[in-house]
Design goal:
CATH class of the largest domain in chain A: Alpha Beta
Number of helices of chain A: 14
Biased composition (Acidic residues) (chain A): 33-51
CATH superfamily of the largest domain in chain A: Response regulator
Order of helices and strands of chain B: HHHHEEHHHHHHH
Shape of chain A: globular
Strand order of the largest sheet of chain B: 1-2
Organism (chain A): Gracilibacillus salitolerans
Number of strands of chain B: 2
Region (Disordered) (chain A): 29-54
Largest sheet of chain B: 2 strands, antiparallel
Helix content of chain B: over 70%
Protein name (chain A): Urea ABC transporter substrate-binding protein
Strand order of the largest sheet of chain A: 7-6-8-9-10-14-15
Largest interface: A-B, 63 and 60 residues
Number of domains of chain A: 2
CATH topology of the largest domain in chain A: Rossmann fold
Shape of chain B: globular
Distance between the termini of chain B: 49 Å
Radius of gyration of chain B: 19 Å
CATH architecture of the largest domain in chain A: 3-Layer(aba) Sandwich
Order of helices and strands of chain A: HEHEHEHEEHEHEHEHEHHEHHHEEEEEH
Helix content of chain A: 40-55%
Largest sheet of chain A: 7 strands, mixed
Oligomer: heterodimer
InterPro entries (chain A): ABC_urea-bd_UrtA, Peripla_BP_I
Chain lengths: 427, 300
């Protein structure tokens, strides 16, 4: 009798862990957190409506749970921007008052908190989200209440909501140019390696179509479960195929295991180039710069990006959050999103959502990554694309960048080869 | 031919990792019937110990001795994890021996507390551990490269296995442990201090989790949640192998490791994982008590 009970218990326990592991897994992109993920969970229950001198803005990121690792630093960047704006006199002569909520890495919670921010706190806009799942959860809420959301992370595209401003990269601002660059500079046999969920699969579908169009060779495509840590077999397959390039859409901890084991297997960046789209400065710290040195990344911004705005941004970010804090692409996108919104409000002369949206068209801001412009057609931003190489000190040095900021194209409409793709993927 | 050898090596290598993370559990869960959900976090403790010792060496030791940090980490991880295990046993597990469901919940809670503690001390992002130079690269056998880190883990798991075997089957103290686990009352009547034995056994099981954590730094990420990614595998090995049997754990670990690698090689990683679970479920239908049946006198 006891034995049987035991068995049930065991199953129960395993199930519980499995659920945690699954939720821990949807680790959308990079980890970017200079401090711990637990501070600043201040709830602003005490606010009693607008008192006229302040404008409330919602900040909705995961401050607890598995995504806190990445989202806390984006939240910090947004708070930094708010602080700076307030020091310079605020927006429309009023101070910004952040209302901070915790999405807790749980998508229903994101929807619920977005609802609370819009209904109860009546915030002028929300800055928040990281994973596509959290964005998809907030989307119907902001549309229903005609709210605004500034979403700061690169994503798989195939979306444009009138109530969301996308300050991260669309696929044509990160993935498509990276493939082009690799074809030109590193060879034309590709191996696609990704985590097994929506972003890598969507991105790789686009890459497949692009490779076919360019007449390049796809020698292998592998997906591993999120959190997967044993890459020996995948590496054996890669060695068999001997590609010129591995296009890496792995997410989270798997990157550490993959790069360590790749190096142990004797494959260096001289043999096969790995280009990653979810590894930024903070991840490199966790992987170990000596392990990933020489491999490539594709983003719109690096800590080393050479603009006067960036010098200032990195200095103030590190002054606020510590010498060791590193900045990264989503951190920067969260930061300039606040400024873009503030400029749009100034332009509109009001925080009314419809008027702000109208005024936001074509608004520009000199962000750390260069001048960004809101595209009136789809509410994404024009961004410069940058390919970089990881250095031994963990920083990324640029190898190449687009001459001008690239027009965002979330549905890849501009590319003939993607015409079937966007239909099949955009449901 | 090369492919077969490489797949076999990868399978054995995965098996040795599984064995290493499951050895501690084979003692606490297998022998003591404590469902220790904090086992993964004890692995995490071992991993962070390695990180801490590495940092100390980096900052204070002359660079030519840097590689030594890893050799020192292993016993330190063993001792610290065993210490935490002992503390856990005295303060919590001891009161829950007869209540497995409660021990599951309580140790689950302990696991979360340990995770949060690690997050507070080291921060939420992963930390990097540099492999010692003698473990980077690999042994070239013909056209194959067998990574030294994998060979090292294989060796380490064999050493751990034999030291556990020697302790339980060849020493007086180990015999007392087995006596208590098989028939507590009888052992008590014969003058064995069951309390002490329980504490010691749990500490040993925890200690080997620490060693596993140390070895895992060679492979992947060191973060607060490192434990959760390995604990399912650990339970899987012990259940398949047969609760209460050390050699069950060995056969379970290598069986699962090799089969998983073959599945993954033939299909892909996701499907491989699904297939291995299907095989395990089917296997447990056929042999509910695992590969190696343990005979005990206890009336359960």
């Amino acid at each position: 009798m006891r034995k049987r009970n035991f068995f049930y218990l065991l199953i129960l326990g395993l199930l519980a862990i499995f659920m945690v592991a699954c939720s821990a897994a949807d680790n959308a992109a990079s980890a970017t957190d200079p401090e711990e993920g637990t501070e600043t969970t201040e709830e602003s229950e005490s606010n009693e409506g607008n008192d006229g001198d302040t404008i409330k803005v919602g900040i909705l990121h995961s401050l607890s749970g598995t995504m806190a690792i990445s989202e806390t630093s984006v939240q910090q960047a947004e708070l930094l921007a708010i602080e700076e704006i307030n020091e310079n006199g605020g927006v429309l002569g009023k101070q910004l008052e952040p209302v901070i909520e915790d999405g807790a890495s749980d998508w229903p919670t994101f929807a619920e908190k977005a609802n609370k921010l819009l209904q109860q706190d009546e915030v002028a806009t929300i800055f928040g989200g990281w994973t596509s799942a959290s964005r998809k959860a907030m989307l119907p809420v902001v549309e229903e209440h005609n709210g605004l959301l500034f979403y700061p992370v690169q994503y798989e595209g195939m979306e444009d909501s009138p109530n969301i401003f996308y300050t991260g990269a669309a696929p044509n601002q990160q993935i498509v140019p990276a493939v082009d660059w690799l074809l030109e500079n590193r060879g034309d046999s590709f191996f696609l390696l990704g985590s097994d969920y929506v972003f890598p699969r969507t991105a790789n579908a686009a890459i497949r179509a692009q490779l076919e169009n360019e007449g390049a060779e796809l020698v292998g495509e592998e997906y591993t479960p999120l959190g997967h840590t044993d890459y020996n077999t995948v590496i054996a397959k890669i060695r068999n195929e001997n590609p010129d390039v591995i296009f890496n859409t792995l997410n989270g901890d798997s990157n550490v295991a993959f790069f360590k084991q790749l190096k142990d297997a004797g494959i260096t960046s001289d043999d096969i180039t790995v280009l990653s789209v979810s590894v930024a400065e903070e991840e490199i710290k966790g992987i170990g710069a000596d392990v990933i040195e020489g491999h490539l990344t594709s983003w719109n911004y690096y800590q080393t990006t050479d603009t006067p705005e960036n010098e200032e941004f990195v200095a103030s970010y590190q002054a606020e959050y510590g010498e060791d804090a590193v900045t990264a692409d989503p951190i920067e996108a969260g930061y300039f999103g606040v400024y873009l919104w503030a400029k749009a409000v100034e332009e509109a002369g009001t925080t009314d959502v419809d008027e702000v949206r109208e005024a936001a068209k074509g608004i520009t801001f000199d962000a750390p990554n260069g001048t960004v412009t809101i595209d009136g057609d789809n509410q994404h931003v024009y961004k410069t694309v940058r390919i970089g190489e990881v250095q031994s000190d963990g920083m990324i040095s640029e190898l190449w960048q687009t001459e001008e900021p690239v027009k965002p194209d979330p549905y890849l409409d501009e590319y003939d080869w993607a015409s079937d793709l966007s239909e099949s993927l955009a449901e | 031919m090369n492919e077969i050898i490489l797949t076999l090596f990868n399978g054995i290598s995965l098996g040795s990792i599984l064995l290493l993370i499951a050895l501690g559990l084979a003692i606490t869960f297998g022998l003591m019937n404590v469902i220790n959900m904090a086992h993964g976090e004890l692995i995490m403790v071992g991993a962070y110990i390695t990180y801490v010792i590495q940092t100390i060496f980096m900052n204070y030791a002359p660079p030519e001795y840097f590689d030594l940090y890893f050799i020192i980490s292993i016993p330190v991880a063993l001792i610290v994890a065993a210490g935490i295990g002992m503390l856990l046993e005295v303060s919590l597990i001891r009161h829950l021996y007869k209540r497995p469901l409660d021990s599951l919940l309580a140790t689950w809670g302990v696991g979360l507390i340990l995770q949060q503690t690690a997050r507070s001390i080291f921060g939420a992002p992963n930390v990097g551990v540099t492999s010692p130079s003698f473990l980077t690269g690999g042994l070239e056998v013909g056209s194959l490269i067998l990574p030294y880190s994998r060979l090292f883990i294989l060796g380490l798991s064999i050493v751990c296995l034999f030291s556990i075997f020697y302790y339980f089957y060849r020493t007086a103290s180990g015999r007392r442990v087995r006596a208590v686990m098989q028939n507590r009352q009888m052992a008590e009547c014969l003058g064995v201090s069951t309390r002490k034995v329980d504490m010691l056994t749990f500490a040993i099981g925890s200690g080997f989790a620490g060693v596993a954590g140390c070895a895992l730094t060679l492979l992947g990420a060191i973060g607060p949640t490192i434990g959760t990614s390995y604990i399912i595998d650990a339970f899987m090995v012990v259940v398949v192998g047969g609760v209460g049997a050390l050699f069950g754990a060995v056969s379970g670990a290598f069986g699962i490791g090799i089969l998983n690698t073959i599945f993954e090689y033939v299909t892909n990683a996701t499907l491989g994982k699904v297939l291995i679970f299907i095989v395990i479920i089917a296997f447990l239908q056929w042999r509910p008590s695992g590969l190696v049946m343990s005979r005990s006198r206890s009336l359960d």
